[in-house]
Amino acid sequence: MNKPNNFQRIRELNTVQKAALAAALMERMLPNYSLFSDALEFGDPAVLKNALALCWEKILLPKSKISIEKLVEKVEPNVPEVSDFDVFGVYPAIDAATALLTLLHGIQSKDEQEYVNVCKIAQGTVARLIEYQFELDEQPYQAKDVNQHPLMEYEVGVLSELIDFVSALNRIDKDNVKALRHLAVEDGHTNIGVEI
């Protein structure tokens, strides 16, 4: 298999393409937070949705007067603590909030690695769910079992499709951001396969 892997392809994108890719993955992760928040009455999903909308605005209009610092201050109190909850859903919720903070830090510091980290967090959420399912079923598993699981293969496929889309963009404008956001959620599921 000599096809370059997704992370190699992500590293070859330019800064704005990486930022748009990370924001598109957030569109798939954020509903996990909303579901957790609604079920356990913790946090305010609207704060996170608003922060993501402003990230898109900043990616589109880098000179816009959006205070990333203020957004970080608003998002941080909405990150749940694992020890406070006895449900698996806390993990995808933490991952979504952490990935959003990572995206915000990337925009603020113009650090491309942060955008790559968002992609890694998104896949990590999927891996954790698969491992959790194996453990619930008391099945032994190895890394390859996780990587070859249909949910992971699907997530890798979606990521590949999103990379194809952003790598074809010469510039990011309102129309292709709209198309990218639609593409990210057109299957109607979050990155862990929960219906949106």
UniProtKB/TrEMBL annotation:
Pfam families registered for this protein in UniProt: DUF416 (PF04222)
InterPro entries linked to this entry: DUF416, YP001051499.1-like_dom_sf
Organism domain of life: Bacteria
Name under which the protein is recorded: DUF416 domain-containing protein
Organism this protein belongs to: Pseudoalteromonas ruthenica
